[in-house]
């Protein structure tokens, strides 16, 4: 049965590696299973499996298809490795992110979107790391830059790059976003004024110790967040 999204609606589903169930592997494509087996650590395998299973389960609900039958294209625009932004049929837009104990799958009908979540790890040299991602105006306006500010900037910027499909091939310093204490907004994207004009940004709530952001390139009217634990425990999706 389909779970209809309304035009302009986006949903973000949150999960954890501990939500993994043995039958989740049956939902994976051959490529996803190969990727799983290439990982050495059990926690990395669980994180990758839950992310892929959740994406297929959520997409299946909105497309009215069985999760294992959902066709996901991960073609890269610059190489033959299938690691590009996931795309689905019927105009359904999706994005996936995971860090440590958090996994996010965003789905919507408001335009291309990008979600990012980051575990806020202690940085001994915040400013040194920030100079790789922040423009001079952002560093100056945020001095002294703390951990919360750095990860707010980072997640906002990476969500923009994921929404465009540019990824980290584009330097984060080419993007300027609002100050961490201000509502999220894209101020500048060098050479891409159309992105600035269409971008709608949202702060997410992944829990203590994490920062999250969502960017939608379109008229996003409603963004909601959902706990996916029960969805991932429902083994009727394995059929």
UniProtKB/TrEMBL annotation:
This is 4'-phosphopantetheinyl transferase. It comes from Catellatospora bangladeshensis. Keywords: Transferase. GO terms for cellular component: cytosol. Belongs to the P-Pant transferase superfamily. Gsp/Sfp/HetI/AcpT family. Gene3D superfamilies: 4'-phosphopantetheinyl transferase domain. PANTHER family: L-AMINOADIPATE-SEMIALDEHYDE DEHYDROGENASE-PHOSPHOPANTETHEINYL TRANSFERASE, PHOSPHOPANTETHEINE TRANSFERASE. Residues 112-190 form the 4'-phosphopantetheinyl transferase domain. GO terms for molecular function: holo-[acyl-carrier-protein] synthase activity; magnesium ion binding. One of its GO terms (biological process) is lysine biosynthetic process via aminoadipic acid. Pfam families: ACPS (PF01648).
């Amino acid at each position: 049965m389909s779970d209809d999204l309304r035009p302009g609606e986006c949903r973000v589903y949150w999960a954890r590696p501990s939500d993994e169930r043995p039958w989740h592997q049956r939902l994976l494509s051959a490529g996803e299973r190969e990727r799983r087996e290439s990982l050495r650590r059990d926690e990395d395998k669980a994180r990758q499996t839950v992310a892929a299973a959740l994406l297929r389960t959520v997409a299946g609900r909105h497309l009215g298809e069985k999760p294992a039958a959902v066709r996901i294209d991960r073609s890269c625009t610059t190489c033959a490795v299938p690691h590009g932004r996931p795309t689905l049929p019927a105009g359904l837009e999706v994005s996936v992110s995971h860090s440590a104990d958090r996994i996010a799958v965003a789905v919507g009908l408001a335009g291309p979107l990008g979600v990012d979540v980051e575990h806020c790890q202690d940085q001994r040299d915040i400013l040194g790391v920030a100079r790789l991602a922040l423009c001079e105006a952002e560093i100056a306006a945020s001095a002294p830059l703390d951990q919360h500010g750095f990860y707010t900037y980072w997640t906002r910027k990476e969500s923009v790059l994921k929404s465009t499909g540019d990824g980290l091939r584009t330097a984060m310093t080419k993007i300027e976003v609002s100050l961490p204490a201000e509502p999220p907004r894209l101020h500048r994207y060098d050479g891409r004024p159309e992105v600035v004009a269409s971008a709608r940004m949202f702060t997410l709530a992944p829990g203590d110790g994490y920062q999250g952001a969502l960017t939608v390139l379109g008229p996003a009217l409603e963004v909601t967040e959902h706990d996916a634990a029960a969805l991932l425990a429902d083994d009727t999706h394995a059929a």
